[in-house]
Structure to design on (280 residues):
C-alpha cells in the first residue's frame, strides 16, 4: 500500500464522521448525527439512544436519512448535504482512501449531517434498522459487465432485497451510470418485478431532459468518475424508481434468461469506442 493511502487510512480513524465496520448502529443514526452536531469527541456508539420512527405525537421528528452506496469520494453525500440541511446523509464504501476525500471536505465545510461508513455493501443490512433510510443513491458503480457477475450489480434483486430491509415503504432508489448495459439491466429488473418507475433517461444532460419537468436538480451533482468521462461521451443514464413490491426469488432465473439474450460483455475500451461512434 502506498504511503499516501496509509496516511489517509490513519486519518479517517480519527474522524468522528467516519465509522469503520461499526457495531450496533441500526436505529441510532439520528442520535449519532446529534453528537456530530455537538462536536462530540470519541462518540460512544454503545451509549447512543435508539430512535423511533418520529411519527408518534410524543416522538421527536427524525430527519430523513439518505444513503449513497459505493460512494467513492462521497461527492453525492457531500453535494446533497450542501443542498439539504434538513436531512442526514451517509456514504458507504470499502475504499478508505476514497472516503477520506469526502469526509475531509465535510469536516472542512462543517457539514455535520454528512458521515461515512467503511464496509462492504453486501453487509449493509448490519448498519441500518427497518424503515431507517428514506432514499438510496447509486452513482457510477462497477457495472459488472460479465454476465457471470450479474449478481454483483447493485441493482440486482439480490441487493434490492437487502435494501428493502431498511428502506422505508415506497422508498426511492436512484441510479446514475454511463453503462448502457447496467441501465438496460436495471430497467429490466424494474419491469420484471413490477416496481414503480418514476423517471428514466438514457441521456441525462440532454437539452430536452434538462428542460423537462422530470429533471431533478440533485442530478446536477457530478462525481469524480463522471468528470473523467471514461466512456468518452457525456451520455449519462439515470433511473429513479420505487422499491415498492415484493421480489419473488423464482423470478431470478427468468431475469437471468432475459439478460442472456440481449447482453454482451463490454470493457471500458469498447464503451469508449461505441461512444465515439455514436458521436460521429
Amino acid at each position: 500500500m502506498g504511503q499516501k493511502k496509509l496516511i489517509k487510512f490513519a486519518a479517517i480513524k480519527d474522524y468522528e464522521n467516519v465509522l469503520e465496520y461499526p457495531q450496533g448502529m441500526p436505529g441510532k443514526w439520528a442520535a449519532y448525527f446529534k453528537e456530530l452536531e455537538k462536536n462530540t469527541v470519541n462518540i460512544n456508539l454503545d451509549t447512543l439512544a435508539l430512535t423511533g420512527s418520529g411519527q408518534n405525537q410524543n416522538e421527536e421528528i427524525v430527519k430523513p436519512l439518505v444513503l449513497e452506496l459505493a460512494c467513492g469520494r462521497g461527492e453525492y453525500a457531500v453535494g446533497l448535504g450542501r443542498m439539504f440541511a434538513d436531512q442526514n446523509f451517509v456514504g458507504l464504501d470499502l475504499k478508505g482512501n476514497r472516503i477520506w476525500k469526502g469526509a475531509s471536505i465535510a469536516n472542512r465545510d462543517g457539514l455535520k449531517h454528512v458521515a461515512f461508513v467503511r464496509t462492504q455493501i453486501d453487509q449493509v443490512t448490519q448498519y441500518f434498522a427497518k424503515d431507517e433510510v428514506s432514499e438510496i443513491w447509486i452513482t457510477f458503480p462497477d457495472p459488472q459487465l460479465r454476465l457471470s457477475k450479474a449478481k454483483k450489480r447493485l441493482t440486482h434483486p439480490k441487493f434490492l432485497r437487502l435494501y428493502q430491509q431498511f428502506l422505508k415503504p415506497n422508498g426511492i432508489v436512484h441510479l446514475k451510470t454511463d453503462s448502457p448495459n447496467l441501465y438496460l439491466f436495471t430497467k429490466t429488473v424494474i419491469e420484471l418485478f413490477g416496481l414503480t418507475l418514476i423517471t428514466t433517461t438514457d441521456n441525462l444532460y440532454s437539452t430536452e431532459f434538462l428542460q423537462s419537468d422530470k429533471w431533478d436538480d440533485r442530478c446536477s451533482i457530478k462525481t469524480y468518475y463522471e468528470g473523467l468521462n471514461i466512456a468518452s461521451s457525456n451520455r449519462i443514464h439515470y433511473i429513479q424508481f420505487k422499491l415498492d413490491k415484493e421480489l419473488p426469488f423464482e423470478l431470478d432465473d427468468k431475469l437471468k434468461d432475459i439478460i442472456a439474450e440481449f447482453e454482451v460483455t463490454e470493457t471500458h475500451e469498447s464503451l469508449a469506442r461505441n461512444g465515439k461512434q455514436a458521436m460521429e
Q: What stands out?
A: The domain at 3-279 is CATH 3.40.50.150 (Rossmann fold). DSSP finds ten helices and eight strands in the chain. The radius of gyration is 19 Å.
